[in-house]
Amino acid sequence: MKNIIYLLGSILAILIICSACNDEWKEEQYIQYACLKAPAGSGSTVTQIRVKYRSEETTRYQLPVIMSGTTLNSKDRDIHIVLDPDTLDIYNREHFYSRTDLYYHLLEGSFYDIPNPVVHIPAGKQSALLDINFKLKDIDLVEQWVLPLKIDDDPSYNYQSHPRKDYNNALLWVTPFNDYSGTYGTTNLSVYTETSNQPIIENQRTTHVVDENSIFFYAGVTKEERRDRKYFKVIATFNAETDSTGTVSLEAAYPDVIKLQVIGQPTYQVVKVMDTAKPTLQRRTVTVSMEYTFEDALEVPDHITRYSVKGTMSMQRNINTLIEDEEFAIEW
Fold it and tell me: How far apart are the first and last CA of the chain?
């Protein structure tokens, strides 16, 4: 009998505890803060965003603004978004020190527009979107451009921004893309000096947008971290002859500096293959074949190093054909 009473008492105690726990979770466990959702890479507070390049049109990007907490947003909120150049300055100094040539640059106002910097989140909703319209014609991607934003706080506003770094601000590294830009594998692209038959091989080379049909890369194995990298900028323009093949025109941004000489006619080919395991996934590969020579009179004082480059470089994109927006359809 005592055991039965003890068992019933234990069950009753558990039910009371569970009931108390359930009631507890009906109330907000934290503070409802306003936040910007901009996931950054590992070890970084900078968020790279991919924006389709259009020279004569704008491209819209939508930045999520959310209310944190364990319960639904309790009231109508009007979240004010402002520029945050101070955080960008701090980031540059902490990460690049005296290498000001590697600093992220504040994106110029002519390259974007925010129609309404006040985002309305109605009661019962947890998020809304900030529209940012980019128009990136003539942007020079030798430099890296960041749009730094944060949530503005004021006693008169009906919200409080999140107190933690990276929750109430967003450093958006704007990266335009076209059909040919991205990271190419270059293990089949050989670079020789005039004094050696041993090729210099790099695993990959990053290319950047110039316009809808043009990209640029740095000649040979020129590092993207070089202070004088802009002088080695080679512009490649893709001239379509069929849907999948064409020629490539190579042009030096500073022809008097690197003395670029193109040998033969560079060409490209595009191959599209649907994945056998994932039938909605398209694998699109761009292969560029080229040969050229150039000079480097800047790296070693009073000495000119002459290089020859020959071979192919390839870039593969995996594209989810079910997603219309290219920015999200491509598996970056």
Answer: 68
CA distance 217 to 290: 13
Beta-carbon-side half-sphere exposure of residue 135 (alpha carbons within 13 Å)? 8
State how far the alpha carbon of 159 is from the alpha carbons of 65, 69, 72, 78, 97, in Å: 12, 13, 14, 8, 36
Report pLDDT digits (tens) over 171-217: 999 999 999 999 999 999 999 999 999 999 999 999 999 999 999 99
- Please say whether the beta carbons of 34 and 79 come within 8 A: yes
Per the CB < 8 A criterion, the answer to whether 295 and 306 are in contact is: yes
Number of other CB atoms surrounding residue 199 within 10 Å? 14
Residue 25: inside a domain, yes or no? no
Q: Are residues 160 and 229 in the same domain?
A: no
Containing structural domain, residue 158: 34-177
Q: What is the pTM of this model?
A: 0.89
With respect to residue 3, please indicate whether it lies within any of the assigned structural domains: no
